[in-house]
Amino acid sequence: MAMFDPKTYSKYVMMIFFFVVLITSYLIVKPVLTAALTAVVLAYLFYPLFKFINKYLKKNWISAVIVFCIIFLVITLSFFWILNTLLKEVFVIYTIGEQRLVSGNILGIDCTINPTLCNKVNFLKDNLRLQYYIKEYLVKFRELLTNSIDHFVFSIPKRLVEFVVALFIAFFLIRDGEHIFNRSRAIFTLKEHHEKSLVKQFNDTIFAVVYGHLIISLSAGFFGALGFWIFDIPSPIFWGIIIALLALLPLIGGSVIWIVACITLFLNGHVTSGILLFIYSLIFISGLEFFMKPKIIGEKANIHPIFIIVGVIGGLAIFGFIGFIVGPVILALLVTFFEIIEQEKITIEVK
Fold it and tell me: What φ, ψ does residue 114 adopt, rounded to 5°?
């Protein structure tokens, strides 16, 4: 008969208790997991600013409070400005679209400049069946827009709680970031070169995603809005935001928007403006997307582009907007872990 071993029994009890606590902790954290991940990203991005301020103030909590206020102002002011602008310009675009549909001039061509082309393109005047279907889709679009606004309004309390939680977690991560990092190093006792590999991969992937994707896409949107405003394209800020969003998506980009804008200018007889907008967009929008972005990502991210693409799409689906950064980082760390395992396996075989 096997002897009862109190030490073995105690070890298994502790393991079971540990896994129970671990699973329970996950269930507790799960509702605010997205907020926590958002906080980690915010803390990482704003930590250099904290270090800069703290170099002069020498007080962690005061420096953290200042950074906290900066994060709050940047996010809230940007959000309300974008929301207010989008609502106004979407209404303008919808109204213009409805007016063009009724008149039959769906492309908005100036018939005094190009009457022949105007008659060929404006086929909706005589096609009542097609007009009916388009009006039906416009009604459905208006209903979808109304429902989306209602859904957004009702989700505000939840999003507000997540935002507050993310800000407070970010505050403590910024204030105590160095201490938390050192404690993590003590818990996860990795070899020094493996630890450096993980930290480097984390830094490089965040740099590639934030600067190679996010900042470049926002810059493309900014230059798109500026160009549309210069060449008198309606709702320039709205189209700038659309260009920025399309630039975030792999293999798509915002070219489709500015090409249509150039064609519209040509059709309305503004040939010079159309050519200038084409050159401007080719340099400042597509140039950023197709030359600067690959250069930044290629130089910094030691990871195959497919992992970034899959990470962005999967991250957005699971975590929302913050998944744009979190997804690629998680996959990059996974690849690094596999590389560490492979290195350790080779080391063992050599020994």
Answer: -135, 75
